[in-house]
Protein backbone atom coordinates (compact mmCIF):
# COMPACT_ATOMS: atom_id res chain seq x y z
CA UNK A 1 0.00 0.00 0.00
CA UNK A 2 1.45 3.34 -1.07
CA UNK A 3 0.92 6.72 0.58
CA UNK A 4 1.37 9.90 -1.43
CA UNK A 5 1.28 13.30 0.27
CA UNK A 6 0.50 16.61 -1.34
CA UNK A 7 0.66 19.85 0.64
CA UNK A 8 -2.16 22.28 -0.11
CA UNK A 9 -3.07 25.91 0.42
CA UNK A 10 -1.89 28.69 2.67
CA UNK A 11 -2.28 26.48 5.74
CA UNK A 12 0.10 23.89 4.25
CA UNK A 13 -2.38 21.08 4.90
CA UNK A 14 -1.39 17.52 4.12
CA UNK A 15 -3.73 15.60 1.83
CA UNK A 16 -2.96 11.90 1.61
CA UNK A 17 -3.69 9.54 -1.25
CA UNK A 18 -3.61 5.88 -0.25
CA UNK A 19 -3.07 3.61 -3.25
CA UNK A 20 -3.32 -0.16 -3.49
CA UNK A 21 -0.26 -1.00 -5.57
CA UNK A 22 -1.94 -3.98 -7.25
CA UNK A 23 -5.31 -2.58 -8.30
CA UNK A 24 -4.47 1.16 -8.24
CA UNK A 25 -7.64 1.68 -6.21
CA UNK A 26 -7.23 4.74 -4.00
CA UNK A 27 -8.67 6.86 -1.21
CA UNK A 28 -7.94 10.51 -0.53
CA UNK A 29 -7.91 11.84 3.01
CA UNK A 30 -8.58 15.55 3.61
CA UNK A 31 -8.45 17.25 0.19
CA UNK A 32 -8.07 20.67 1.74
CA UNK A 33 -7.51 23.28 -0.98
CA UNK A 34 -6.45 24.03 -4.57
CA UNK A 35 -9.25 21.95 -6.07
CA UNK A 36 -8.38 22.36 -9.75
CA UNK A 37 -4.68 21.57 -9.39
CA UNK A 38 -5.46 18.71 -6.99
CA UNK A 39 -7.81 17.14 -9.54
CA UNK A 40 -5.10 17.39 -12.21
CA UNK A 41 -2.61 15.78 -9.84
CA UNK A 42 -4.98 12.92 -9.04
CA UNK A 43 -5.61 12.36 -12.74
CA UNK A 44 -1.85 12.19 -13.35
CA UNK A 45 -1.51 9.35 -10.84
CA UNK A 46 -3.66 7.01 -12.99
CA UNK A 47 -5.57 5.76 -9.97
CA UNK A 48 -9.11 4.50 -9.42
CA UNK A 49 -10.31 6.91 -6.75
CA UNK A 50 -12.98 5.24 -4.62
CA UNK A 51 -13.79 7.66 -1.80
CA UNK A 52 -12.95 10.83 0.12
CA UNK A 53 -12.38 10.42 3.87
CA UNK A 54 -12.35 13.47 6.12
CA UNK A 55 -10.74 13.61 9.54
CA UNK A 56 -12.72 16.73 10.46
CA UNK A 57 -14.53 19.68 8.96
CA UNK A 58 -12.16 22.63 9.28
CA UNK A 59 -11.77 24.85 6.24
CA UNK A 60 -8.18 23.81 5.51
CA UNK A 61 -9.20 20.14 5.31
CA UNK A 62 -12.37 20.30 3.21
CA UNK A 63 -11.75 23.12 0.74
CA UNK A 64 -11.29 20.88 -2.32
CA UNK A 65 -13.85 18.21 -1.40
CA UNK A 66 -16.53 19.26 -3.86
CA UNK A 67 -14.07 19.66 -6.75
CA UNK A 68 -12.68 16.17 -6.21
CA UNK A 69 -16.11 14.63 -5.63
CA UNK A 70 -17.47 16.11 -8.85
CA UNK A 71 -14.43 15.20 -10.94
CA UNK A 72 -14.35 11.55 -9.86
CA UNK A 73 -17.96 10.87 -8.79
CA UNK A 74 -16.91 9.41 -5.46
CA UNK A 75 -18.63 9.42 -2.06
CA UNK A 76 -17.56 11.63 0.84
CA UNK A 77 -17.35 10.41 4.45
CA UNK A 78 -17.12 12.50 7.63
CA UNK A 79 -18.49 12.40 11.17
CA UNK A 80 -22.08 13.59 11.48
CA UNK A 81 -21.02 15.94 14.29
CA UNK A 82 -18.62 17.90 12.09
CA UNK A 83 -21.06 17.90 9.18
CA UNK A 84 -23.51 19.71 11.45
CA UNK A 85 -20.81 22.25 12.37
CA UNK A 86 -20.19 22.84 8.66
CA UNK A 87 -23.89 23.31 7.99
CA UNK A 88 -24.16 25.72 10.93
CA UNK A 89 -21.23 27.68 9.47
CA UNK A 90 -19.31 27.55 12.71
CA UNK A 91 -16.06 29.50 12.83
CA UNK A 92 -13.12 27.69 11.16
CA UNK A 93 -15.36 25.10 9.49
CA UNK A 94 -15.32 24.97 5.70
CA UNK A 95 -17.95 24.86 2.99
CA UNK A 96 -18.91 21.66 1.23
CA UNK A 97 -22.01 19.88 0.06
CA UNK A 98 -23.51 17.38 2.48
CA UNK A 99 -21.47 14.21 2.87
CA UNK A 100 -22.77 10.97 1.37
CA UNK A 101 -22.27 8.95 4.56
CA UNK A 102 -21.30 9.49 8.18
CA UNK A 103 -18.69 7.44 10.02
CA UNK A 104 -18.56 6.44 13.67
CA UNK A 105 -16.13 4.38 15.70
CA UNK A 106 -16.81 0.70 15.11
CA UNK A 107 -18.14 1.14 11.58
CA UNK A 108 -16.77 -1.33 9.06
CA UNK A 109 -14.98 0.34 6.17
CA UNK A 110 -13.06 -1.92 3.78
CA UNK A 111 -10.52 -0.65 1.27
CA UNK A 112 -8.54 -2.94 -1.04
CA UNK A 113 -9.46 -5.93 1.11
CA UNK A 114 -8.19 -4.28 4.30
CA UNK A 115 -10.19 -2.91 7.21
CA UNK A 116 -9.89 0.82 7.80
CA UNK A 117 -10.41 1.27 11.54
CA UNK A 118 -12.48 4.35 12.38
CA UNK A 119 -11.34 5.95 15.65
CA UNK A 120 -13.31 8.78 17.22
CA UNK A 121 -10.71 11.26 18.49
CA UNK A 122 -12.50 14.42 19.68
CA UNK A 123 -10.61 17.34 21.12
CA UNK A 124 -9.42 19.36 18.13
CA UNK A 125 -12.96 19.30 16.81
CA UNK A 126 -15.85 17.51 18.42
CA UNK A 127 -16.25 15.15 15.49
CA UNK A 128 -12.58 14.44 14.72
CA UNK A 129 -11.89 10.99 13.31
CA UNK A 130 -8.59 9.18 12.86
CA UNK A 131 -8.11 6.34 10.38
CA UNK A 132 -5.89 3.30 10.96
CA UNK A 133 -5.13 0.82 8.20
CA UNK A 134 -2.25 -1.58 7.58
CA UNK A 135 0.00 -0.01 10.25
CA UNK A 136 -0.70 3.54 9.04
CA UNK A 137 -2.48 6.16 11.16
CA UNK A 138 -4.00 9.29 9.66
CA UNK A 139 -4.48 11.54 12.65
CA UNK A 140 -5.79 14.76 11.13
CA UNK A 141 -5.06 17.65 13.48
CA UNK A 142 -5.20 15.56 16.66
CA UNK A 143 -1.55 14.45 16.86
CA UNK A 144 1.48 16.03 15.21
CA UNK A 145 5.20 15.42 15.38
CA UNK A 146 6.14 16.68 18.87
CA UNK A 147 2.83 18.51 19.26
CA UNK A 148 -0.95 18.18 19.39
CA UNK A 149 -3.85 20.01 17.78
CA UNK A 150 -5.20 23.34 18.94
CA UNK A 151 -8.33 23.30 21.08
CA UNK A 152 -9.50 26.92 20.97
CA UNK A 153 -11.95 26.52 18.06
CA UNK A 154 -15.64 25.50 18.34
CA UNK A 155 -15.89 21.99 19.77
CA UNK A 156 -12.25 21.95 20.92
CA UNK A 157 -11.29 20.62 24.35
CA UNK A 158 -7.78 19.88 25.59
CA UNK A 159 -8.87 17.25 28.11
CA UNK A 160 -10.73 15.36 25.40
CA UNK A 161 -7.83 15.74 22.98
CA UNK A 162 -5.29 14.26 25.38
CA UNK A 163 -7.68 11.43 26.25
CA UNK A 164 -8.12 10.67 22.55
CA UNK A 165 -4.38 10.48 22.06
CA UNK A 166 -3.35 8.67 25.23
CA UNK A 167 -6.26 6.25 25.57
CA UNK A 168 -6.95 5.53 21.91
CA UNK A 169 -4.12 6.35 19.52
CA UNK A 170 -1.29 5.38 21.85
CA UNK A 171 -2.86 1.94 22.33
CA UNK A 172 -1.88 1.13 18.73
CA UNK A 173 1.52 -0.49 18.07
CA UNK A 174 4.52 1.77 18.64
CA UNK A 175 5.82 1.22 15.11
CA UNK A 176 2.62 2.71 13.68
CA UNK A 177 3.47 5.39 11.14
CA UNK A 178 1.57 8.62 11.85
CA UNK A 179 0.51 10.90 9.00
CA UNK A 180 -0.71 14.19 10.52
CA UNK A 181 -2.74 16.94 8.92
CA UNK A 182 0.24 19.32 8.95
CA UNK A 183 3.98 18.81 9.13
CA UNK A 184 6.14 15.71 8.85
CA UNK A 185 5.40 12.05 9.39
CA UNK A 186 6.23 10.47 12.75
CA UNK A 187 5.60 7.24 14.69
CA UNK A 188 3.70 6.57 17.89
CA UNK A 189 6.90 5.35 19.55
CA UNK A 190 8.61 8.64 18.74
CA UNK A 191 5.70 10.64 20.12
CA UNK A 192 5.59 8.56 23.29
CA UNK A 193 9.29 9.25 23.82
CA UNK A 194 9.54 12.93 22.84
CA UNK A 195 6.14 14.62 22.73
CA UNK A 196 5.96 16.84 25.82
CA UNK A 197 2.15 16.92 25.76
CA UNK A 198 2.01 13.16 26.40
CA UNK A 199 4.05 13.06 29.61
From TrEMBL:
Keywords: Hydrolase, Metal-binding, Zinc. The keyword Nucleotide-binding does not apply. It holds the Pfam family Lactamase_B. GO terms for molecular function: hydrolase activity; metal ion binding. InterPro entries: MBL_Glyoxalase_II, Metallo-B-lactamas, RibonucZ/Hydroxyglut_hydro. Its cofactor is Zn(2+). It comes from the Bacteria. Residues 12-182 form the Metallo-beta-lactamase domain. PANTHER family: HYDROXYACYLGLUTATHIONE HYDROLASE GLOC. This is Glyoxylase, beta-lactamase superfamily II.
Amino acid sequence: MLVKKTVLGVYQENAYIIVDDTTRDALIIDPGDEGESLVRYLESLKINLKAILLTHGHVDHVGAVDAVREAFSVPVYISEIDMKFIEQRKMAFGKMKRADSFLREGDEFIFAGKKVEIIETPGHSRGSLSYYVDGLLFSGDVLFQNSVGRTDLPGGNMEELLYSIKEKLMKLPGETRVFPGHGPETTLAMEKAFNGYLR
